[in-house]
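INFO worker-7 received task bundle
INFO bundle size: 2
INFO processing item 0
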Amino acid sequence: MPISNYPHGFANGVTLREIPTDIRLNGEANVFWVDSVHGSNGNKGTYIQPFATIDYAVGRCTANNGDIIYVAAGHTETVIAASGLDLDVAGITVVFMGEGADRATINFTTAVTASVTIAAANVTLINPRFTAGIDALTGPISITAADCTIKNGIYFDGTSIDTTDCIVATSAAPRLQIRGWKYIPGDEAGTQKQSNIQLDGVDNAILTDIDITGDFATGNIENVTDEILNVRLENIRLKNTNSGPQPGMVLDANATGQAKNIDIRIASGTTYVSSVAKLNWDIQCLGYAADGTGGDPIGTAGGGTIEQKIDAIKAEVDKIDSATMATAPAAGSVASFIASGGTALGTQLADSKSLVDAMGSDGATLSYGTGSILGAIGTSFIIKKTLTSSNITQAGVDITGVSSNGELEIEQIICKTDGTGLATGTNFQIYSDNAKGLANIFVETVANLGASKTIDLETASITKQRTVLETGKKLIANSTVADCTGTGTIDIYIKFKRIAAGAIIAAA
């Protein structure tokens, strides 16, 4: 019985025997099949008559048309030169079929410069399998275009001197996503020389579900040259067996973003990452020694997360046992300190510091220092400033003083007017004097801020921009076209979240 063919696809998807298909096709998208075992580049590229190579199928695709290339299980694409496979058509998806060793494969061989280049935007590789058919490969997967994605990729390395920098992404590849990547060294005694994933100024990248084990002379993941900004690192397991020892991750000190559920193991020492940079590190970011001992928090400059500080305090309190106070309290415990009359200090807090300082409050006075819970990274606080309409001029009026001790994320701005509200002027603006980024954060027409109005960052009609206030900077309000007039007032509430421990700002 012949196979049914629907060349224009199904715009709303299709269900076959109650099983929905995964990929929707528009009516114009091309679908090509590739099979090195049964195919020929003289064929039509259909499931029945597949092409022989991915390279040929890419050349048949149309840019930004949603074209899909299915690569059959058992296929091997041999790449023997630099850019030997160039994915240079924007918007294509390449799906590698099969499981295990039968999964469709790209094999690098002949030259150490053999590589796949992703040189067009919006290219997606699903389930790719890569193998090193020659030792000492350098940068076999090169990404130089925006919005590209690798999903569920796996790389099997050579047997002696292994691959340097399996994936290399440049600053021309913003919004890169690597969602699922496993690296398997061919020889544990081999040296991968530098790194496995190398990012150079790749902003807004997402790396999730990464598993890399090997001997890396720099680090498993390396941020080289230009810092990566607003990166998201999540569910990452790194093991670097280099006896240097070398870290699992190398970050530029100015890199920013978020790290969550990171597990790094190194040969010795505690330098799990070269720099904690300016990332927000979750409590589940932990580093281990080669034998699995440790579990040290990563990225906890300033004393760790709130949860870690509370746990440390609870652990000390739990050591106090009235039944053993006078006999043999645990060394270094609060009980031993009390029982010794203050001579057996054990592990001490910093000079002139106490548990009260660490908590950040004595019941009357709050402290937001870098060593207190109240001032920890990720904590939030709100300030309020009330302005009279006639004080809001084109020249501007300060809402806050300057920030200190680090950067602050602006999470929300809420503006409430009284029964009179603002008058005159065209737009009411709240902006920062940051050195980088868009100045205006909140912009609303004066006409919309009349009597008894409430507007926030979600509802502002002109500009509603969340941002980060840099250290030593402030927030200012002004009006455009003309100064505001009248006796109406506006209350401005601003919610900040600390990016650095102890960061603080006050109303002007």
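INFO item 0 finished
INFO processing item 1
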Amino acid sequence: MLTLAVHPEDVPDDLMRDFVGARYMVVMVRVGDDEKPINREQAYPGDNAVKVAGMLCRNPDFWEFLAENEWLDEQSESACVEWLITFLSIDSRKDLKTNSEARDLLNNIRKKFDSWQTN
């Protein structure tokens, strides 16, 4: 349950004039010390890289991209995971949380894949 207290001077007139029972949606974002929203991808690059690696390994188009470049023989998620782990020189995709070199390699292969998709 969320309770919201707003000072009357901070409430827009349209809100004050709306009928009782009107419904609204409220969005919450984490803010930094500068009171601006935090970009989670930039704040937590390792977490984002793990998520990206997982999405790529489940993407049949990525398998096709790897196969066309003769990097992947079998087009499947498990084969893609094995290839990616070898390519990035890591033991597991979760290593992307702490390994910035592997993240850079992942970003490079993702850019190549994105370029391949647009062609």
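INFO item 1 finished
INFO post-check item 1: The first helix runs from residue 13 to 17.
INFO post-check item 1: The radius of gyration is 22 Å.
INFO worker-7 idle
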